[in-house]
Design goal:
By secondary structure, the protein is mostly helical. The chain has a domain of 74 residues. Helices cover 69% and strands 0% of the residues. It contains 4 helices and no strands. The longest helix is centred in the middle third of the chain and has 34 residues. It starts with a helix and ends with a helix.
């Protein structure tokens, strides 16, 4: 049983080796006169080089933190708008009186949080500018 498999492998490998091309010969070195009269070589444009990573990781970290803060502030403003919409739609309906009161408290909390965060950014900017 092993002999037919070995024969098949041998035949397959020998035919693959027979059809393979020999390696191309290296071009002969040119003399100085031949180099002068040689055709010019086409130069391909290089791909643009990617900018190197930031050399100031602290600055990159601050940028990332600022971006996160902006995203969080946007989410808080969106939540605030949703609470205000609920308050407007619920109106003076007694069935929603407690929910409206909680929503007003949440809106006040969000406004306080946004003021606090803005004050923190302002103080951080002043401290950085003072350095």
């Amino acid at each position: 049983m092993r002999r037919p498999i070995l024969v098949v492998l041998f035949v397959a490998l020998s035919s693959a080796c027979a059809s393979a091309r020999p390696p191309a010969a290296a071009p002969a070195p040119q003399s100085g006169a031949e180099r002068v009269h040689a055709k010019p070589v086409e130069v391909q444009a290089l791909a643009p080089v990617a900018s190197p990573p930031s050399l100031d990781p602290i600055r990159e970290q601050r940028r990332a933190e600022e971006q996160r803060e902006q995203e969080q502030d946007a989410a808080l403003r969106e939540a605030e708008q949703l609470f205000v919409q609920f308050i407007d739609k619920a109106g003076d309906d007694p069935a929603y009186a407690e929910a409206v009161q909680r929503s007003r408290e949440r809106v006040a909390d969000i406004e306080e949080i946004l003021r606090f965060r803005a004050q923190g950014r302002l103080e951080r900017a002043r401290a950085e500018h003072a350095q």
